[in-house]
Task: structure prediction
Amino acid sequence: MLDEPFLLKGVLNQNQKVVELEKLIEERLIFAHIDSVPTEINDYKRSFAEYVQEQSENSRLQYFVDELFENEAKYSLLTFFNITNIYATNPIEKFLTKLQAIPYSEKIYPITTFLMKRLATYENIQHLYPIVTFTNYVIHKFNHRLKRNDAATTTIEYYLTNGPDCETTSKLYESFLDAWYKLNLTEVRFDCQTAKIEHVHVKEDFAKNTMIAVVLLNASKDATSILLAASLKTIGQLQNEVVNYFHNTIGTDPSGSQRKEHVVSVQSVRPEHLLEIDAGKISEQLVTDCFMINYEYGKSRDIIYDYDEIELVLRNKISNLPIIDTEKLQYLNYQFELHAENASLITDVRRRVKQEPLEPNERKKLKGLIQGMDNDDIVNYLGSLDYVFTYLRDIDMDPNVEVPTIQTFVEKNIRWQTCLSDNVRQKRPFSTIHLTYIIDLYELLEECVFDQVLRNYVKQAWCEESFSVVERTQLVEKFIATTFGKKEIAASLESIDCWIGILKRVMIRVLSNVNVDTEVPLQYYLERKDLWTGNITDADINTF
Result:
């Protein structure tokens, strides 16, 4: 330190002079010393070996194998023999050490340095695809066909072993599970909400200890769905972080216009859209293309890395990657949770397709067939019609073309049909019903679902047994007086049957939703036109 190269005249009374001294020490001592360490160690070993050799007539072969000194007379071919442990160890550790020792490495190899600093974090990006594939599948499988209560109480394991498509579900689940347990993120964010990824159960027990609601993206953002949504968003943003750094640093897209054009929704990603990088892949790349052994005698344990090559490889990987749109997510709709009046599917379908009631005899025949179905089939059928409505609400029907049947509409407009009920896809007479009658058919199904299924799950507090005889009588008399018993009531509302029907629909569409506020007056729902049959007008509703 006292040699002439390290002498700097002056007083360290300014920040600039301190920086100059630090830079001088860094350039003339630290960097030079780092480069000389391997040589100094070898010199020390060689000196020790020579000292031992002087004490003994026979030189140990180990010293020659370790390339500490040569004896061409005794081992003439040993110079062609090299010792290296590169294939027995992970080269990435030495690579990172040497990369950090390169002066101004962040400027010379910006992409390599950037990725290596947070390699463990960016490893998560490659696991996005199997997670997205499985979640997309279960959304299509259960959309409008699974009640929130069932999702919160039924394990994933049940759906892996039951149902006609359980093999497909199991295959996608295994890929999802493998990716999920490889995530090393401890915390993920969705807007202002934070969720922690905690593997409470071992991988093999995840399915039997986890409810299906955990892997269903739902717009309610409750505790059961926020973790998955936050994970998708966080991982997608990690890729965007890498892509933006690349273009901003290299200057390939200073205005950002190319990135705006190359955007992929997080739920539409394919493997080729994602940055696949981890310590294993970097090590493989190093061994394959980006290093060589120092064949100079005495230095065969030294590895010469091709930093330019690895930088080029990483740039090529990132240059074609898209920005991932994490703002727009397709959510699952739980069954019977789709009826805010302004967004009601029933109202939208009525606007798109003129509706008519089924013929009385046809309705009676269909009701008999429905009552003979298994309860699960009835619920699945109703959920399938909900799903059809989500497509029908956006279709403009040509008034000059005959209204198609349900089956024809599904075949033409719905690509994902495997999870739909056979009654929608192919089973007569239900599949051949024209769309003109689909709302009346739906309302008929709702009545049957209430009578055969939901009636058994009504909360105890709402059942007649929870009220005294006097209370029941008072409630019934008050209801009659304010509804079909009113003198000025419309003729279409004078029948008790239409009131029984709407009460069943309120139970199905509204009260089966666990998030509904039961303190809201019943009149609020009775004034909603979408809950009434098509023959009831706004003027009729205003008469009670």
The chain has four domains: 4-81, 89-334, 336-457, 459-544. DSSP finds 25 helices and six strands in the chain.
